[in-house]
Amino acid sequence: MAEDLAAGDVGSAGARQRRRELQHRTFALSDAYDRATAASREPRQAAERMWPAVVAAEELAYRLLTACWAIERLGSEEGRRTATLMFGDGGLQAFRRALDDASHAVAGRPLGPLPDAVPGFLEKEVAGLRRALESARS
Fold first, then answer.
1. What is the SS3 assignment for 38?
2. How far is CA 4 from CA 9, 15, 18, 35, 57, in A?
3. Phi first, then psi: what are they for 75, rounded to 5°?
4. CA-to-CA distance for 98 and 109, rounded, in angstroms?
5. Nearest to 64 by CA among 3, 112, 132, 130
6. What pTM does this model have?
7. How far apart are CA 9 and CA 93, in angstroms?
8. Over the stretch 43-65, which tens digit does the pLDDT of each residue have?
9. Pick from 79, 69, 60, 65: which is nearest to 7 by CA?
10. Is 25 helix (H, G, I), strand (E, B) or coil?
């Protein structure tokens, strides 16, 4: 979905499907948290440690979705120009690396340094996710 956004191609049928999928997965994340907190003590405690990361992941997902809606309203040509400016040189790759790093952190690996070229409009949310994951490990 980030690829669609970076290209300014958020209105195609495939891009819209990927946006819906991101939104559904965000709902599923909240549902999984709710189920885990209703479980026995150990799973509940693990889930509660992850709550800040769940919230941060949701914020990042909604930031991406909001950006897609904004680009879509601009129209195809202006949307492509704006998306190119939003992501800059290497922004999509840096964002992917940051997400891969976060994914590895969930699996227990240490976080690496934040890639330099993470797009500015996603920087706050990516940093928040990283802080939450680091905190969950403590």
1. coil
2. 5, 6, 9, 32, 19
3. 95, 165
4. 13
5. 3
6. 0.93
7. 17
8. 888 889 999 999 999 999 999 99
9. 79
10. helix
